[in-house]
Amino acid sequence: MSVNQSSVILSPEEKRRRYMAKGISIQNPVCITRSQGAKMWDDSGKEYIDFAGGIGCLNVGSTHPEVVEAIREQAGKLIHTCVHVTLNEPYLDLVEALCNLAPIAGETKALLANSGVEAVENAVKIARSYTGRSAVLAFESAFHGRTNLGMSLTSKVHPYKAGFGPFVPEVYRLPYANCYHCPFGESPETCARDCVQALESAFDTYVDAHNVAALIVEPVQGEGGFVVPPPDYLPRIREICREKGIVFIADEIQTGFGRTGEMFAVEHYNHLDPDIIVMAKSLGGGLPISAVVGKAQIMDATEVGGLGGTFGGNPVSAAAALKVLEIMERDQISQRAKQVGETSMNYLRALQNEIPAIGDVRGQGAMVAMEFVKDRESREPYPEFVASVSHKALAKGLLTVKAGVYNNVIRLLTPLNIPAEELKQGLDLLAESVRETQQELG
To answer: Model pTM greater than 0.85?
Structure first.
């Protein structure tokens, strides 16, 4: 049997319709053939500015030449061995680097996996093993992946959960301190109070605290729409976890590696000291790799053989990750994120004053988003506006990515080392698309 049986040459779109499963969504229906930094080119040679970053995987830019060279060099020496069979140097060097980097007090240990949701699954396994408990607390509007446990922790039915049940038991969901859509109708100044109280009340109404193994939280919600909680929220729920013996897991899959202006978003808080941090996305510079880093006594709670996977910590991906960490430190990527974020935030807030459909502009560092609403008083989601903006932006040469439970948020995930002129050009294209959509849809 030939690998290519058909003599008919199909276009990328024809191949997608013929061979790709329908359930795979594609927001920007173009076929990218090469990339460099914050620019990409499709199969027709058209150039795009990348405001999606592979959904946050390209903080040091696409096809970074030093990362490419590290991949090439490692691939020429050792592509795979499986850490369960033999050790390899990139794996060992990377867990050492991550343990030294993670903002966790005391001795730390780490494991490597392939994807963000694998890191989440392993973090929950470790927490359950350490505590001897089974329940897990998660939050409304959270996203933690597409495996069964990942879906169970995730709070968005369509398209992530519909038709995929039954889900994992003993997962309990709590309101997240979203000041723009406060679940208790509070002002931003008092938003955290009732959400913290909801956590405390959950131990009376939902689950015994002595049966809760872990609480998992995104310091800034990603898929949920780049929701930044009030500054006292995370420290207060962290203290409750500490009092109740609940493992506090910070999901830094999208927020990590400079995106929010710090290497990790939990560093915006003094002494938050998570028990475990899960990492992925930009760690690999575009290659699949993830990590779980945590306090040593917690990480060592499982029996030997209870953790791992065939490709976890693949030496090529680990070598790429080591180079990414080197670039981030040398080039002060976190500081650059603050500059990118300030420029983007100021630009979009000025646009908000002009466009009634922009209900909120928010973010932390270079994790910036616009939420579109039909009316600023009701704050009713306006996903049709986002769909139109995305379509128009693509035609103009700008790649965007949406977010939010109702798909009414455009999030900016530009490479953090994007040149200033390319950032300005991309923002201008985005603004043009927003203005045209406002004229058409009102």
So the answer is: yes
